[in-house]
Amino acid sequence: MFSRLRSDIQCILERDPAARSRWEVLTCYPGLHAVILHRRAHWCWRHGFKWLGRFISHIARFLTGIEIHPGAVIGERVFFDHAMGVVVGETAEIGDGCTIYQGVTLGGTALYKGTKRHPTLGRNVVLGAGAQVLGGFTVGDGAKVGSNAVVTKPVPAGATAVGNPARIIQAELDIKREETASKMGFSAYGVTQNDDPLSQAMRGLIDSASSQEHQIALLWQAIDMLQANRSATNCVPGDAARSEHFEADKLNQLVGK
């Protein structure tokens, strides 16, 4: 029991730069208190003491602001960071090393008892603040769910889900994580360098349009030079675009580049 508690405290010290000592984590971190109380509640639930399990989870909710159903399964080194308003449903499963921020819901969309109604999180998953993961599907190992995303379908391992409804960004092997995130082993709040696939698509279209205008301007300049050499400048329309006017930088700023 004490080795498990030491592991829980150590994982918080590794992931939260605001944590200064083990004593501070033990006494002042409601996420740790919620996990400790949930283990008691879950033991009662599995051994047939359903009411007692629910009562312990109710007390834990009152003390920590984190509501975890006693039937939920939580792995090792799970960190609820801040975590006020977190709700974890009865059939939810949280894998080892997951990080869950405030306002997250692991909820269900089905109303049938005895079914898998809530999500399963793999190992080292990060759920950003306000994320809603709804349904009995799996979020793969190492996946990230951005803040305020609404996820209603499976997320592949290593991918990122952002937006409402959530869109999946596949992991890019050639892009290094931020220096701090790579040292810690996770991206805080599920934030990545490439955040929104729609913004990425828009940036690609803007860059393509800018490149095309640049090529067209070069072509007109070449035509002007040829016509000047032949002393036949009247053949070239006077309003032809010979310089670039496409404001790619401003448009990229609008889509968040």
Quick overview of this protein structure:
The protein has helices spanning 2-15, 22-28, 30-46, 50-64, 179-184, 197-229, 248-254, and strands spanning 67-68, 73-74, 79-80, 87-88, 93-94, 99-100, 105-107, 120-121, 126-127, 132-134, 138-139, 144-145, 150-151, 160-162, 167-169.
List the SSEs and their pairings:
Layout: H1 2-15, H2 22-28, H3 30-46, H4 50-64, E1 67-68, E2 73-74, E3 79-80, E4 87-88, E5 93-94, E6 99-100, E7 105-107, E8 120-121, E9 126-127, E10 132-134, E11 138-139, E12 144-145, E13 150-151, E14 160-162, E15 167-169, H5 179-184, H6 197-229, H7 248-254
Parallel strand pairs: 1-4, 2-5, 3-6, 4-7, 5-8, 6-9, 7-10, 8-11, 9-12, 10-13, 12-14
Antiparallel strand pairs: 14-15
Helix pairs in contact: 3-4
Model description:
- The protein is of the alpha/beta class and 257 residues long.
- The protein folds into two domains: 2-194, UDP N-Acetylglucosamine Acyltransferase, domain 1 (3 Solenoid); 198-254.
- The chain is 39% helix and 13% strand.
- It has seven helices and 15 strands.
- Strands 3-6-9-12-14-15 form a six-stranded mixed beta sheet. A five-stranded parallel beta sheet has the order 1-4-7-10-13. A four-stranded parallel beta sheet has the order 2-5-8-11.
- β14 (160-162) and β15 (167-169) form a beta hairpin.
- α3 (30-46) packs antiparallel against α4.
- The chain is elongated.
- The two termini are 48 Å apart.
- The model is unreliable at 173-181 (pLDDT under 50).
